[in-house]
Amino acid sequence: MSDLDEARAIRYFLDAFYDRDTIKPAREAGLYPVVIFHSQQVCEKSAKGCLSLYAIIIASDHHASDFFNRYIIPESGNLQSQFQKNLVHMNRLESYYIPSRYGVNKSGRVHYLEYNLNTVTELSQAAVDFLEISMQFFEIKTGKMLPRSRERLEQYFLKAYSHCIRMLE
Fold first, then answer.
1. Tens-digit pLDDT profile for the chain (169 aa)?
2. Where along the chain do its domains lie?
3. Spelled out in words, what is the top-level CATH class assigned to the domain 3-164?
């Protein structure tokens, strides 16, 4: 894999950290649709980070689990059972993605999803766990250790992969 593949993966993980860091305050405020949405985003970006290591880029698909099953699970070695356990939650979050974010879908159907605190807590924790396992996958495949805080990961990303980053202002 190239430095660019690694830079893409870390950038996805960094995006996932922003979503992860939104979950707890949203749960404490009782904003359960926001918790579900950002939990799904953590999973999607974590999966895209892993896929990036194989130069697989999914720009707009919100169902990254299909690609993840096809390309990452067979390569995940000792992490395979952990990934498979969390994929159940990832699939569930993917099915909640639209109704948690949009009350009206593309065809005009009106959605209302009732949220249970225990379910929201379980799914959000599964998303955080999925991010951690995805980062472990990166570390195994690259031999590089990643920081687990958003701030330190961003510093590492900017320092180690500056030659791959297009800076915007």
1. 899 999 999 999 999 999 999 999 999 999 999 999 999 999 999 999 999 999 998 876 656 778 888 889 999 999 999 999 888 898 898 888 778 888 898 899 898 888 999 999 999 999 999 999 999 999 999 999 999 999 999 999 999 999 999 887 7
2. 3-164
3. mainly alpha
Predicted TM-score (pTM) of this structure: 0.91
The whole-angstrom separation of Cα 94 and Cα 43 is 9
How many other β-carbons are positioned within 10 Å of the β-carbon of residue 163?
8
Q: Distance between CA 150 and CA 155 in Å, rounded?
A: 9
* CB burial of residue 75 (10 Å; 0-12, 13-18, 19+): middle
User: Is residue 23 a contact partner of residue 124, using CB atoms and an 8 Å limit?
Assistant: yes
3-state class of 110 per DSSP? strand
CA atoms of 73 and 68, how far apart (whole Å): 6
Answer whether 46's CB lies under 8 Å from 94's CB: no
